[in-house]
């Protein structure tokens, strides 16, 4: 899987966000949603089921293609908690601009 | 010219603390006037010290100070406190209006003046090893003093049980007697919240933790019979055991593993008796009574040796004897003759069983706290503190009081075992109670958001 660490927003190219991997422990489920800039588009991911201890750093696939995006994670049940030490979002530049429709 | 602040409605406002105001128009034409001041308790205040001093000692114009809660139209006296020419201390609620009346004692030629001084009690962070003295009168706050500096008050805690019995265990749980309803109440010293209330236990109560420091023993006597029960630091109260053959109980403490309860017979020349806890019967005495000596406190150390505090009711001599489990005297720690007549006390040290603390009294209202090493009797610390009994400076009137805050003179004392954050003392005016009661309610969804990518 390609690393996207070197991606830069300076060109505002269109990026395909492909997956997220976390170093996470907790209890309950971590709900995750990807949002495009200004929350115009969103994509709800399959939640992570968290464990108090684990040797797995889980990965969740996604198919989200926009210029800019961010990930929101949350819990929504009493007693759930999460502790995240690291988040890696995998992405790849795919286009430099949108198709000209005029 | 006569003063104008001669009623609650015309009271002079104390705008800031500390204050030092000298009013010189007390006397007009041979008539002295009672004068009034008011203030709104600062948001940080738990206890206020106030003092109206005329400059005369023993005779002449010497006003008596009375504190009240407001409003001016319906003042209510605070805890019945009154002191002529002497400092007082009293608990306050932040943001509430209070009044001080300086009531004249006579008319004379004058001129006369009253110097009004007020200050907020210290608000230091309680620390392990601090000395706790809960009051013996309901309504008065528990005093916290530093362990080594004379006359240094650390802070006060309001709304604590007040009476003559109490003890603490190393986890910080505190069990105190409450005189208003003869109950015992368990507190958490992290925040001094009440965890348990026994309800009324009729009779005279004694409280001491066991040698293992993980169980409170509550002695009780009434109607010619002595009893005991236990209360865990979690607040679980046992059934009561009848100490058959004993009518009263004073000092008490259970040995390691709770096999023997050592207890002193009440009053002069009381023996130290041994109660077989599992066998539910008295064994032979550990030590015979000593003429004129009472034994207000017993502490059994982790090695099974027994410290017994002896107080001579005639000479006021105070000493502590350390007994082996077989009854042999291993050490005698002499504290000498106290000049006061108030019952001395003993408390677990922070480093128990290496050392222990004792509390004796002078006839000038001074508490003497002494930390003594068990092994050789070396006095590790001697710490003096001016007493304030029923909120009043417990010493003759003077132009130079020793300190403006102090402890009650007759109550248990304890050494604080864990720190307590200062925020716990704040009384929030207009506090809102969670309408959900005891139902668990989650906070809004805990959420994180990454920055915009890439």
Residue runs with pLDDT of under 50 for 5 or more positions of chain A: 1-6
Order of helical and strand elements of chain A: EEEEEE
Q: Sheet bearing the most strands of chain A, described?
A: 3 strands, antiparallel
Q: Helical stretch count of chain A?
A: 0
Write out the CATH superfamily name of the largest domain in chain B: YVTN repeat-like/Quinoprotein amine dehydrogenase
CATH class of the largest domain in chain B: Mainly Beta
Strand numbers in spatial order across the main sheet of chain A: 4-1-6
Q: Helices and strands of chain A: which structural class?
A: mainly beta
Residue share in helix of chain B? under 10%
Major sheet of chain B: size, sense and barrel closure?
Answer: 6 strands, mixed
Residues in β-strands, percent of chain B: 35-45%
Q: Show the largest interface.
A: A-B, 26 and 13 residues
Number of strands of chain B: 39
Estimated share of beta-strand residues of chain A: over 45%
The CATH topology assignment of the largest domain in chain B is Methylamine Dehydrogenase, Chain H
* Ends apart, CA distance between termini of chain B: 82 Å
Helix fraction bin of chain A: under 10%
Tell how many strands the DSSP assignment of chain A holds.
Answer: 6
The end-to-end distance of chain A, rounded to whole angstroms, is: 36 Å
State the main characteristics.
heterodimer, A: 102 residues, mainly beta, 3-stranded antiparallel beta sheet, 6 strands, 0% helix, elongated, disordered N terminus, B: 454 residues, Jelly Rolls, Methylamine Dehydrogenase, Chain H, 2 domains, 4-stranded antiparallel beta sheet, 42% strand
Briefly characterize the structure.
The complex is a heterodimer of chains A (102) and B (454). Chain A has 102 residues and is an all-beta fold.
Describe this structure in words.
The complex is a heterodimer of chains A (102) and B (454). By secondary structure, chain A is an all-beta fold. In chain A, 0% of the residues lie in helices and 58% in strands. Chain A is built from no helices and six strands. With 454 residues, chain B is mainly β. Chain B starts with 11 loop residues before the first strand and ends in a 5-residue tail after the last strand. In chain B, strands 1, 5, 7, 8, 9 and 11 form a six-stranded mixed sheet that branches. A four-stranded antiparallel sheet of chain B has the order 2-12-6-10, with no helix packed on it. A four-stranded antiparallel sheet of chain B has the order 15-14-13-38, with no helix packed on it. The chains are: A mainly beta (102), B mainly beta (454).
């Amino acid at each position: 899987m390609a690393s996207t660490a070197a991606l830069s927003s300076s060109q505002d190219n269109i990026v395909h966000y492909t997956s997220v991997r976390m170093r996470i422990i907790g209890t309950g489920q971590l709900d995750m949603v990807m949002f495009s800039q200004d929350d115009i588009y969103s994509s709800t991911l399959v939640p992570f089921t968290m464990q108090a201890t684990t040797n797995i750093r889980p990965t969740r696939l996604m198919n989200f293609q926009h210029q800019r995006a961010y990930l929101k994670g949350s819990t929504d049940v009493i007693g759930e908690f999460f502790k995240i030490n690291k988040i890696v979002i995998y992405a790849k530049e795919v286009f430099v601009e949108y198709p000209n429709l005029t | 010219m006569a003063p104008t602040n001669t009623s609650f409605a015309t009271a002079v406002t104390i705008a800031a603390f500390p204050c030092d105001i000298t009013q010189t128009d007390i006397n007009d034409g041979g008539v002295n006037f009672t004068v009034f001041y008011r203030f709104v308790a600062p948001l940080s205040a738990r206890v206020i010290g106030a003092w109206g001093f005329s400059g005369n000692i023993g005779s002449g114009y010497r006003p008596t100070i009375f504190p009240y809660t407001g409003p001016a139209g319906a003042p209510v006296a605070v805890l019945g406190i009154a002191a002529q020419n002497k400092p007082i201390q009293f608990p306050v609620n932040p943001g509430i209006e209070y009044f001080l009346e300086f009531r004249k004692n006579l008319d004379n030629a004058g001129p006369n003046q009253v110097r009004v001084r007020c200050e907020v009690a210290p608000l230091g962070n309680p620390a392990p090893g601090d000395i706790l003295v809960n009051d013996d009168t309901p309504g008065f706050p528990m005093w916290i003093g530093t362990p080594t500096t004379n006359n240094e008050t650390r802070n006060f805690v309001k709304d604590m049980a007040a009476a003559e019995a109490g003890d603490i265990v190393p986890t910080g749980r505190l069990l105190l007697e409450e005189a208003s309803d003869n109950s015992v109440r368990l507190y958490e010293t992290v925040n001094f919240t009440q965890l348990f209330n026994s309800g009324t236990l009729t009779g005279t109560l004694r409280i001491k933790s066991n040698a293992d420091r993980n169980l409170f023993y509550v002695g009780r006597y009434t109607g010619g019979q002595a009893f005991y029960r236990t209360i865990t630091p979690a607040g679980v109260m046992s059934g009561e055991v009848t100490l058959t053959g004993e009518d009263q109980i004073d000092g008490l403490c259970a040995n390691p593993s709770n096999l023997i309860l050592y207890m002193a017979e009440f009053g002069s020349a009381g023996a130290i008796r041994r109660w077989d806890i599992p066998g539910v019967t008295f064994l032979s005495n550990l030590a015979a009574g000593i003429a004129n000596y009472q034994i207000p406190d017993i502490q059994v150390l982790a090695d099974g040796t027994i410290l017994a505090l002896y107080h001579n009711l005639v000479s006021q001599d105070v000493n502590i004897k350390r007994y082996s489990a077989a009854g042999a005297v291993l050490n005698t720690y002499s504290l000498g003759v106290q000049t006061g007549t108030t019952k001395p006390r003993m408390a677990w040290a922070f480093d128990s069983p290496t050392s222990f603390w004792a509390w004796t009294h002078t006839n000038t209202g001074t508490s003497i706290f002494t930390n003594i090493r068990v092994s050789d009797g070396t006095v590790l610390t001697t710490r003096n503190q001016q007493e304030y009994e029923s909120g009043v400076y417990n010493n003759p009137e003077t132009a130079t009081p020793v300190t403006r805050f102090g402890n009650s003179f007759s109550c248990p004392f304890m050494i604080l075992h864990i720190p307590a954050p200062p925020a716990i003392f704040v009384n929030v005016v207009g506090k809102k109670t969670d309408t959900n009661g005891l139902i668990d309610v989650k906070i809004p969804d805990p959420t994180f958001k990454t920055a915009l990518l890439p």
